[in-house]
Each structure stands twice: as C-alpha cells, then as structure tokens.
C-alpha cells in the first residue's frame, strides 16, 4: 500500500476518536465522583464542627477565666465522636496542626480568622476547627491520593432568663406591686392557678414571661402577655450547681480590719471607717445608721443561730439607712441556719450614705453577690435605688426563701433566683442583662448555645 493511500485510509479513526471521547467521559465522571465525595465529607465534617462548637460553648461558664479548659476540650471531642468519627487529636488556641489524621482545634478566645472575624478575641464565643484527610478514587491516577478537608464553626452561650421563682406549687410565687422592666425573661415555676399576681401594675415588660401555672391581676398591664401552663425549665434551679464555701471556724477579730468575728458584729458611726476582709462572721453583720464600711474582695461566710428581740431571728447581713458601704468582687454567703439579708435603701435621695457592692468577675463565684443557703428559709428584703446612691451588681440567690425586692437597675446586670418574689411598690424594679464584665457570661446554668458563625 502506498503512503498516499495509507494516509487517505480512514479505517479505525472513528474507533480512536470514540476511545478518546470515552476516556474524557470517564475522566469527567471520575472527577464528579471525587468532587461529590469531597462535598459529602465536607458536609459531614461541618455537622461535627457545629456540634463541637455548641458543646464547647456550653462549658464557657465552667471554664470561667481559664481559656480552653479541659472540660471544654472533652465536651467538644465527645461531640465529634458522637457524630461517628474517631477520637480526634485536640489542639487549642490556634496552634499549628501537625496531625495527618482527624484533628480538632478549640479556640477560646476566637482567633482562626483574625481581625476579619467580628468575634475575634471574644471569650464569650468558642471556635471549633475540624480537619481530616480523605482518599480520592480517580484523582489518585494523577497523583492526588488524599485531600485535606476542613470545617469551622463558632458558638456562643445564651441565657434566657434572669428572674426565677422556684416555688413549685404556691400561690403568688411572683407578685408585682408596681412597674417591672426586664431585659431578660421572667420564669415563674409555680403550677398554682394564681402563680403570678399583680395589682395596679401598669408597666410590666420583659422579652418573655413564662408561668407554669396561671396568672391573676387587677388593672395589670403585662407586655407581652405571660405564656401560661408552660413546662418547668430544666434544671429547675439554674444556680443549683454552685458548691457552697466551707463553713470554717468563726473569726476572732475584735477591731478593724476584721477577718471574721465570733459573735454578731455591729458597726456604727462611732466605729469610724471600718474594713472587713473575707472570713467567717458568726452571729451576722449589722451595719447601722451612718456606719462607714469597706468590704475587701472575697467570700464572706455568715453563720447565725441566735435569736433577737421577741424571739425574732437575728444575724444574717443587715445594711441600714444612711450607711456608706462599698465592696468590689465580693460574695456574701448567708449560711444561717437563721438570719436573713436585709438591705434598706441606705441612701436618702443621694444626700447621705451610698452603697456600691459588685460581685466577682472571676474565681469560684463569678457573678454571685448574695447567696443564702438552701436550709435557711429566713425572708430577705432588698431595696436599692441608683439615683439615691445605691448600686448592687450581681446575682441574688435565695433558693428556699421569699424575697421582697425593689432595685431600679443602675447595675450592668442583676439576677434574682428565689423561692417566692414580691416586687415592692416602693420603686420600680429594672433588670439589665449586660454580662460583658463576666468572661463566662451569665452564671445561670439555664443556658443553651447558638451558632454565631
């Protein structure tokens, strides 16, 4: 056959073209299989990262001021395994990942995306970054045996409520006598048909008001209308997780500066300026008219088993009119078994006396200002007004006692958890919910977590 004839012969060309076309089809099909597989792995990994971030965010309060604490790492790692993966290698704080297998990086504060992330540097959000390597099927022919796949998520703690009435069945678990405004939810856990009552209260507002039972009132304007017959929250008591401080031996101080006392400590104007330090104060602390008292940071344990005039309970913590009291980073634990906490608007129109007490931001009891032991049922009365020179910032916790309450909200946040609550008609009560001073946010464990990125 001549060369010219050979070149003109088209026999078999169609077969060659078909083979090339088929190879291209197979190649595109293989690429589609690999890409589809990678996207499937990516979706599954994103679900695991979301779960890890949410689980880690739930531990922010537990960690307190310790970033990336072990509880946070364990919770996030467990979330990964619960999504069907093996136990990951855990890294923290944007550490360079060296693992060639499944890895989990927990970042608290958030750091992976740098300053472009609106949550960058925040300790109130947690970032979870999950990476793994997945094999390819067809791309390996071209030398791509494994691809690195990653997913990232951020979550933050949320806390719905800041007012809780724990009474499971009593009437008037929450009673409102005058204006009440809250930047957080109010939860009334009583199943009574008269669980929430109000009289001539024209201004009652909150994002949500939940009542396990019913409500009753005369000329009571509540916005929005309470959600009635609601289920009790879980846990019922959002501060039940707290571990009480040890009730140590009574202090023996007899003059300022005090480090505890062996009997009731009554402070008056005659004492001059007085300094108290953390310790055990047996018999209670009574700050009388015109007294001037400074509490240094720490936890004050108050033990009282005596009775006063006419057999009435004595002890506890009492702060009277016209006194000047200050303390930053303080927690008052009223063990009892008798004696309550009485706070009687110490300043009169801001002319005489002032009180400024704020809860710790870190340590064992961040956000906890007043705490009465569950075995102590003595009622409490807390009256304070910012314009009148009083500031109380923190949580008020009385799990087995009723509280008469009127605080007008000059503080960044207030939390009230008690068996029964009466909002008095002296001044309106305002609950703010700005927890920026607390690294872990609200101390309440009624929290949940939400994805923020």
Features:
transmembrane helix; alpha/beta; 35% strand; Putative Flp pilus-assembly TadE/G-like; 30 strands
Terminal Cα span: 73 Å
Shape: elongated
Mean pLDDT: 83
Percent in strands: 25-35%
Structural class: alpha/beta
Radius of gyration: 31 Å
Q: How many structural domains can be distinguished in the coordinates?
A: 2
Largest sheet: 21 strands, parallel
> Helix share of residues?
10-25%
Descriptive overview:
It comes from Bryocella elongata. Residues 12-58 form the Putative Flp pilus-assembly TadG-like N-terminal domain. The chain crosses the membrane at residues 12-33. By secondary structure, the chain is of the alpha/beta class. Helices cover 15% and strands 35% of the residues. The chain folds into 2 domains: 12-158, no CATH class; 234-451. The chain is built from 4 helices and 30 strands. The protein has a 21-stranded parallel β-sheet that branches. A 5-stranded mixed β-sheet has the order 1-2-3-4-30, with helices on one face. α2 (13-57) packs across α4. It is elongated and about 130 Å long. The N and C termini lie far apart (73 Å).
């Amino acid at each position: 056959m001549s060369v010219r004839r050979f070149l003109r012969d088209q026999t078999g060309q169609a077969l060659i073209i078909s083979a090339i076309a088929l190879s291209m089809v197979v190649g595109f099909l293989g690429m589609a299989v690999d890409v589809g597989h990678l996207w499937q792995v990516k979706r599954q990994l994103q679900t695991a990262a979301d779960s890890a971030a949410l689980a880690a965010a739930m531990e922010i309060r537990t960690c307190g001021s310790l970033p990336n604490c072990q509880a946070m790492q364990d919770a996030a790692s467990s979330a990964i395994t619960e999504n069907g993966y093996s136990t990951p290698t855990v890294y923290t704080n944007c550490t360079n990942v060296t693992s060639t297998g499944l890895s989990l990086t927990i970042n608290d504060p958030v750091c992976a995306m740098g300053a472009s992330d609106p949550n960058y540097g925040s300790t109130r959000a947690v970032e979870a970054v999950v990476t793994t390597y997945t094999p390819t099927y067809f791309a390996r022919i071209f030398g791509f045996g494994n691809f690195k796949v990653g997913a990232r998520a951020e979550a933050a703690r949320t806390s719905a409520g800041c007012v809780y009435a724990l009474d499971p069945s009593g009437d008037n678990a929450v009673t409102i006598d005058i204006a009440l405004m809250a930047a957080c939810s109010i939860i009334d856990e009583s199943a009574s048909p008269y669980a929430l009552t109000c009289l001539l209260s024209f201004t009652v507002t909150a994002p949500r008001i939940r009542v396990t039972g019913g409500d009753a009132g005369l000329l009571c304007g509540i916005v929005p209308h309470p959600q009635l017959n609601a289920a009790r929250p879980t846990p019922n008591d959002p501060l039940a997780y707290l571990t009480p401080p040890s009730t140590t031996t009574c202090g023996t101080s007899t003059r300022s500066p005090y480090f505890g006392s062996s009997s009731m400590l009554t402070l008056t104007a005659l004492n001059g300026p007085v300094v108290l330090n953390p310790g055990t104060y047996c018999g209670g602390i009574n700050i009388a008219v015109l007294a001037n008292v400074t509490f240094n940071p720490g936890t004050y344990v108050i033990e009282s088993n005596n009775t006063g005039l006419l057999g009435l309970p004595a002890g506890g913590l009492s702060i009277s009119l016209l006194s000047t009291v200050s303390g930053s980073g303080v927690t008052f634990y009223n063990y009892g078994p008798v004696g309550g906490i009485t706070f009687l608007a110490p300043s009169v129109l801001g002319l005489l006396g002032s009180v400024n007490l704020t809860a710790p931001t870190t340590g064992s009891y961040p956000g906890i200002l007043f705490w009465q032991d569950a075995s102590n049922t003595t009622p409490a009365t807390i009256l304070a007004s910012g314009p009148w020179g009083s500031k109380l910032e923190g949580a008020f916790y009385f799990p087995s006692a009723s509280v008469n309450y009127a605080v007008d909200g000059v503080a960044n946040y207030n939390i009230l958890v008690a068996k029964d609550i009466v909002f008095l008609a002296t001044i309106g009560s305002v609950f703010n919910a700005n927890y920026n001073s607390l690294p872990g946010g609200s101390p309440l464990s009624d929290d949940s977590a939400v994805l923020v990125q």
